[in-house]
Amino acid sequence: MKKLVGAGGFTPDGPNHFAEHLRTDSLSVGTYSIPAGGVDDQAPHHEDEIYVVTAGRATLVTPTGTELVGPGDVLFVAAEEEHRFTDITEDLALLVFFAPAYSGR
After folding, report:
1. pTM
2. How far, in Å, CA of 96 to CA of 64, rounded?
3. Of 41, 59, 60, 86, which one has the greatest count of Cβ atoms within 10 A?
4. How far is the C-alpha of 72 from the C-alpha of 47, rounded, in Å?
């Protein structure tokens, strides 16, 4: 068992901040933080992702649609799918689950 203390909390460390909390062969978990008014500059990933919004408000834009998101929302983004958080009106904190584990770019 492992307890992830502080996971999902907003971290004001630069324009965008990703902190990995756990890594196994099959998945990884981290927190992605984007400040209000910030720009999400991520590229598509090789892994499936689940985002859990823990704080803030924004819009998630993908080729298949646009969703307003806020605390408690859970979002699935398939591997290689273009996606971006826009219109970040409140500091945004997201728990991010990658499967398999995030390989980076």
Report:
1. 0.93
2. 20
3. 60
4. 22
